Amino acid sequence: MKALRDPIRLIPVLFLAAIAIGTVLLSLPFATVDGVRAPLLTALFTSTSAVAVTGLIVVDTPTYWSGFGQGVILLLFQVGGFGIMTSATLLGLMAGRGFGLRDRMATQVERSRLETHDALTALRLILFITIAVEGIVALILTVRLIASYGEAPGLALWHGVFHSVSAFNNAGFSSYSDSLMGFQNDPLFLGPIMVSIIITALGFPVMQDLRTNGIVWRRWSLHTKITVGGTAALLVLGFLAILAMEWDNPDTLGPMGWGAKILNAAFHSVMPRTAGFNSLNVGAFHDETLMTNFFLMFVGGGSAGTAGGIKVTTFFVLFAIVLSEILGRQDAGLFQRRFGREIERQALAVTVLSATLIFVATTYIASISSLPLDDILFECISAFSTVGLSTGITAALPPGGLLALIVLMFVGRVGTITVATALALGGRELPFRYPQENPIVG
């Protein structure tokens, strides 16, 4: 009962409950195409991947799972995505007010505050954006599949809805066996998916700020400036890096024309940030391209959205701290605003905890399998950052490796939110201070 009164404990409990329900449903005989019960680990892994909106799979979604099973998966990542956005937003509100200490539920984003009575309005806005974006993208994809690929209207509608919901929630699940590789030359199919992913990867606080203040830069909060500016910079960096590194790769961009190369490089600059769709064979990427993906996946997208990773703001807060130290400045900050010490400590804590968990999981999986280390590291970062991209080794992992990825997906989706919020809520002033002594650093 205590967990039900404490949101820090409630959110993980709710996600675990959703995963458990999904596992039971996917374990039913009619959830698979051949009518045989899926192994428990397969059902658990798939359910966790869906609820955590990751997209890693151990079996081929369209050929292994029946219509019922695919419907369950769709429902799980819809619930997981919407639940993540709402819970992250509410926890952010609670963190801003000092949970249980004041009458108002608010969060400080520069000088803007969300009051307690705005919580319902915020949730309504999230619901409206969800329905609107998913509906528009589903319609575009359905029409495209009917008009250009000759799919029957019912089948086209299913594929359109499935990919629209998966894209909006950054889930990365596809109802096609080769993900989106069959649409390499189609900007009218890949484009709407990219736009949907970018919108939701910004996070709800940015959406609300844009709704309130429009596109007037000077009126944006510091959080919005960092998220939008950082997202744009990382997308451009990813695009240029992938385009240059894979330009002559005969297994990826090499055989394509200019237009297709630009389209697929742009598509794959978006995917590592949050969603696991692929229009290229990720397993055929050059090592330097995989390294770029390591970085993009680890950083992730915006806070209080469906994206994973340590988040854009966390990375740029750390970057500003390093820059201020190099320049000998007393305060770290961006856009003529300085950061509070508590924000700096939270960013450092989230990053160190995330990197440590990935290191431990990678080391463990490497110790129980003979798979290449770079592929294992890629898989672990993808799982923790809830990206879902894979070099193709997921199904080859031993049971212990799959369990490690399950833990990564769960903690990566739920843990970073709860840890960051716990840090924000858990500040306690000691009645004394220890004597100061500085060790040698660096």
TrEMBL record:
Segments crossing the lipid bilayer: 12-32, 38-59, 71-95, 122-143, 188-206, 226-245, 294-327, 347-370
Membrane topology, from the record: Multi-pass membrane protein
Keyword Cytoplasm: no
UniProt main location, coarse: membrane
Official protein name in the record: TrkH family potassium uptake protein
Domain of life (superkingdom): Bacteria
InterPro entries, per the entry: Cat_transpt
Any Pfam family: TrkH
Localisation: Cell membrane
Origin species: Alteriqipengyuania abyssalis
Keywords: Cell membrane, Ion transport, Membrane, Transmembrane, Transmembrane helix, Transport
PANTHER family per UniProt: KTR SYSTEM POTASSIUM UPTAKE PROTEIN B, TRK SYSTEM POTASSIUM UPTAKE PROTEIN TRKG-RELATED
